[in-house]
Design goal:
Length: 464
């Protein structure tokens, strides 16, 4: 294994200089008010007994907004409504932490890791970038993924994912050295759908990358991720497959790509903790508290949870989600200090049940002791897709879309409730999309008095 984190001449966590130069984040930037105040903590702060205790009797008994969910959508709404309109909020969450699925923490060895899987911030929206810089210092990071993929002889090779010139050369003994040659290779591989337009995921994938890459990189990975082969999924899922003709091995092409220096949780701490207009109560089940009459008076309910859960009492079918299960392992003093060559290594072949392995130690936002080499071991997390557990990804097919539309019709008629975010919208949002959606909903609140979306976002990256 490499003696050091995944890096390039441009630095740790950076792409090769030609491609790293496309990232508009060039150095550490942003504001961390908690750190600037003299608090040197590198992990999550202790929120205290009142916040963690689950006791609503200690919370404000009358607020402008009751916000269900302490993730991105709820936090942005609370922060904006407080700072610009002076509105008060109580945020409740059934979990024992703030930050939603972005929550990260330090494990017992001092390694920063994510409770709900690796999060990589990237955005094309300057408004979002300017907003998040207020709540954290950020370091440039060009996410690059590797995959262990069988070549034409069945030998597994570590190659860039999404496929690049290097991927095709390594797997199929090609000698592609230009964009023109790569495009010609794709053109020769692609299979047009029988009807002209792809009718399912398999037809979409074959029309994008052809059978060689489809079989080795996408077919079985899709089955593991969704428990459905591509031909069982909407064409839209696989039509998003990136077809690189260059040597650019960055996973994302957005102009702003970075990681928060002291973790994602710090963003939420700076957004919410020192605001007298915002109260937080964790370990609170909204539905249980509502049934028991424990909720405070409020003018508007901002609901960021699953829309089908909100209407569960009506007996309608549940929407289908995929979840993730993480199998963590601490590796004590691996050779070179690392378990694998990159932070994320995908395993798209069908011989192992997990989809990928994440090694957090590669991140340049590890605490000082890790970066200085004083932590000799490393933490890895094998990811398994599952039908059970926390909802991550909506399953895109006609029946789920039709069912969601029934829920959306109910939500549109619901007085005094705003449904916000990915779970309430039954749509996978990237982090930046969730933030922008909440910001624009706040814009609408200022302009029209209604907390509702300004646009419909396309699907995010989905399962990595």
């Amino acid at each position: 294994m490499p003696a050091g984190p995944f890096a390039s001449p441009a630095g740790v966590g950076r792409a090769e200089p030609e491609w790293a130069a496309l990232n508009k984040v060039t150095a550490t930037i942003g504001a961390d008010d908690i750190n600037a105040s003299g608090n040197a903590a590198e992990g999550p702060l202790d929120l205290g007994a009142d916040v963690n205790g689950g006791d609503l009797s200690t919370a404000p008994q009358e607020v402008d907004l009751l916000i269900v969910g302490a993730g991105l959508s709820g936090a942005v709404i609370a922060e904006r409504c407080s700072k610009e309109l002076g509105m008060t909020s109580l945020i409740v969450d059934k979990r024992d932490h703030i930050g939603g699925n972005c929550y990260d923490y330090l494990d017992s060895h001092g390694i920063r890791c994510s409770k709900y899987g690796a999060h990589l911030f990237h955005t094309q929206y300057e408004r979002v970038w300017e907003y998040v810089k207020q709540f954290s210092e950020w370091v440039p990071f060009d996410h690059r993924v590797r995959g262990l993929v069988p070549d034409k002889d069945g030998t597994k090779r570590l190659v860039p994912i999404p496929p690049t010139q290097a991927t095709v050369n390594e797997l199929f003994s090609e000698n592609i050295d230009s964009e023109e040659k790569m495009q010609a290779w794709y053109d020769a591989q692609r299979i047009k759908p029988p009807t002209g337009e792809p009718q399912n995921g398999e037809e979409a994938a074959l029309s994008r990358v052809g059978p060689l890459l489809y079989d080795r990189v996408f077919k079985h990975y899709t089955k593991k991720q969704w428990d459905k082969y591509p031909e069982e999924l909407d064409a839209s899922v696989l039509l998003r497959l990136p077809c690189r003709t260059t040597t650019d091995d960055r996973y994302f092409g957005d102009p702003w790509q970075a990681l928060p220096l002291r973790g994602y949780t710090r963003i939420f701490e700076n957004m919410l903790l020192n605001d007298p207009n915002v109260a937080i109560r964790l370990n609170v089940d909204f539905f249980d508290a509502r049934e028991k009459g424990l909720l405070p008076k409020y003018k508007l309910l901002v609901y960021t949870g699953q829309i089908d859960t909100y209407y569960a009492a009506m007996g309608m079918p549940k929407l289908e989600y995929r979840s993730l299960r993480f199998e963590e392992e601490y590796v004590d003093e691996p050779e070179g200090g690392f378990f694998q060559e990159a932070m994320v290594v995908n395993h798209p072949w069908h011989d192992v049940p997990f989809t990928r392995i994440v090694e957090y130690k590669h991140m340049p936002i590890q605490p000082t002791a890790v970066r200085d080499g004083r932590v000799k071991g490393t933490l890895i997390a094998r990811e398994y897709s599952s039908a059970e557990g926390e909802p991550y990804y909506p399953v895109p097919n006609p029946s789920n879309r039709a069912l969601y539309e029934r829920y959306a019709e109910l939500a549109a008629k619901e007085e005094g409730v705003a449904f916000v975010g990915r779970l309430a919208s039954y749509k996978y949002f990237n982090m930046d999309q969730a933030i922008l959606n909440a910001l624009e909903m706040f814009d609408n609140l200022k302009e029209t008095g209604k907390l509702e979306p300004k646009r419909s976002f396309g699907p995010g990256d989905g399962p990595k």
